[in-house]
Amino acid sequence: MANRISNETLRARMMSAEDAASLIAPGDTIGMSGFTGSGYPKEVPQALAARIEAKHAEGTPFKVKIWSGASTGPELDGALAKADGIEFRLPYNSDPVAREKINNGEMNYFDMHLSQVAPMAWEGFMGKMDVAVVEISGITPEGELIPSSSVGNNKTWLELADKIILEVNDWQSEHLNGMHDIYYGTALPPNRVPIPLVKSDDRIGQPHFRVDLSKVAAVVRTDAPDRNAPFSPPDQTSLTIASHIIEFLEWEAKRAGLPKSLLPIQSGVGNVPNAVMAGLIEAPFENMTAFTEVIQDGMLDMIEAGTLRMASATAFSLSPEKAQYFNDNAERFKDRLLLRPQDISNNPELVRRLGCIAMNGLIEADIFGAVNSTHIMGSRIQNGIGGSGDFARNGYVSIFVTPSTAKGGAISAIVPRVAHVDHISQDVQVIVTEQGLADLRGLAPRQRAELIIEHCAHPDYRPMLRDYYTRALQDSYGKHAPTLLNEALSWHQRFVETGTMKL
Ligand code: 0RQ
After folding, report:
1. Which among 53, 89, 123, 127 is placed 20 to 30 Å from 161, CA to CA?
2. What residue spans in the chain does CATH classification 3.40.1080.10 cover?
3. Residue 270 labelled as part of a binding site
């Protein structure tokens, strides 16, 4: 283990998680590593939560502000939220305890585009960063840091924080060394220059983080796994959605004369994207690349099957079995995977240049194609917008997927009007449910409505949507995007009052 910390100066700063956590003060803004449950610090946040609980028991207030890459794990967001220790959190959360606090109005949460977190932190309007707590997989003799299973905003946190606490995690594969590309050419306007990346596999930076050694206050050794979400084999709904997407991509490749390697794919996390990856293995594409946010199980399978040449992302998001498999076989993936800072993996300039095929999940879409990715019944946050906006607005084509109903059929995913908007209709080009696919490109609102109702809505809700839309065509104030203002959100209100959107 000692050779993971090859730098003498930093080896001398090793201490326990409890001692390291005692360096954090009430009110501090902490930059935590971590993205979709990988590469987050595991020991210091738990020690901090214990300290906060002890202070609360004495009647002393103690809360901190947490900035991260995206979601982390129960040892971080879960433990700190449970301790009532988070005053403010950004930019993406999927922890159930933290979600509950946010939805009860007990915790402030800034849900933002993931590509924008680092630039906004540099701009400084959110205040200064007191401490960075960053998981790494090792320290070089020169004192550079070998990143872990996610890069996220770590480069930025290391630069901005006054004080740095490092967690060196032995559980992470040593073969991660060399899989990262940390770009140091970013600057704020008016000094911003083009990012010199023109292919998914271009290396434009260096493999390690630079760090000002004088800021490193503590080095903590850990040996704990990432929070890897269990993987359930794709259900029939996911498989059907995936088959519609594959059929569309094959058709689109022919129609537009796209190469055999298609265009770089971006895919959200979950069962549907994994089913799409499985489908792509059988599809007539070869030498594909991914320019995406997270590397899921399906992408490793595609690499092994030879369909995917390489994947560029900012983090892993694997099942426990696949994470173990990766750790055992990491060397084989060395030239096939590249992890970058999230302001590069999700950068709109790059997504637009490369022409990514963006595939993301949604909570609900309306008949004109606006998408709600975040707020149930318009007010309860589920996770956050994540990187969906970075890719949806800028990709070659933006595909959104969902089962046509939720909560056992009590909710229609296709509604007259979304109760919260994350993606305006201009950023939503294809909607897919198990019922079918609606290619909305180039269509006016009324044409979109016909397609979405007939191709995507569940048969239980299709007659209700037809009835609403027919009356809207008749009675709407304007006929460009026919809407019945007093009825457009009535389906949501009915659910809140009765537990179902059905009449
Ligand atoms: O809730 O677990 O309590 O049953 O939402 O829904 O169907 O399991 O689908 O896991 O793919 O998540 C949009 C949330 C879909 C996700 C969303 C309820 C449903 C369930 C989850 P339960 P499913 P998924 C890459 C890109 C935004 C970020 C993004 C997401 C839970 O894809 O967070 O795209 N996207 N990032 O029951 C009420 C509805 C509902 C609903 C679903 N209409 N009404 N509840 N649910 N639809 C990743 C990153 O950015 C990091």
Report:
1. 53
2. 8-222, 236-498
3. yes
CA 306 to chain centre: 26
Tell me, using a 6 A CB cutoff, whether residue 388 lines ligand 1.
yes
Over the stretch 175-223, which tens digit does the pLDDT of each residue have? Answer: 999 999 999 999 999 999 999 999 999 999 999 999 999 999 999 999 9
Closest ligand 1 atom, residue 412 Cα: 43
Arithmetic mean of pLDDT over the chain: 97
* Radius of gyration of the chain, Cα coordinates, nearest whole angstrom: 23
Residue tagged 């320019």 (tokens): 291
Q: What is the CATH number of domain 236-498?
A: 3.40.1080.10
DSSP state of 38: B
Q: Is 500 in the pocket of ligand 1 (CB under 6 A)?
A: no
Interval between CA 382 and ligand 1 midpoint (Å):
7
Model pLDDT for residues 388-445, shown as the tens digit of each residue = 999 999 999 999 999 999 999 999 999 999 999 999 999 999 999 999 999 999 999 9
User: 268 among the known binding-site residues?
Assistant: yes
Is the per-residue pLDDT at 271 higher than 90? no
- DSSP-derived 3-state class of residue 286: coil
Measured in Å, residue 362 CA sits from the centre of ligand 1 at 6
Distance between CA atoms of residues 338 and 340, nearest Å: 7
pTM of the model: 0.97
> Residue 147: CB within 6 Å of ligand 1?
no
237 lines ligand 1 (CB under 6 A): no
Asked whether residue 102 is marked as a ligand-binding residue, the answer is no
Please tell me the predicted confidence (pLDDT) of residue 145: 98
Distances from the Cα of 130 to the Cαs of 27, 31, 32, 157, 215, in angstroms?
9, 8, 11, 10, 11
- Secondary structure (3-state) at 497: helix
| Helix, strand or coil, per DSSP, at residue 217 | strand
CA of residue 48 to ligand 1 center, whole Å = 30
Q: Report pLDDT for 2.
A: 53
Superfamily of domain 8-222: Glutaconate Coenzyme A-transferase (3.40.1080.10)
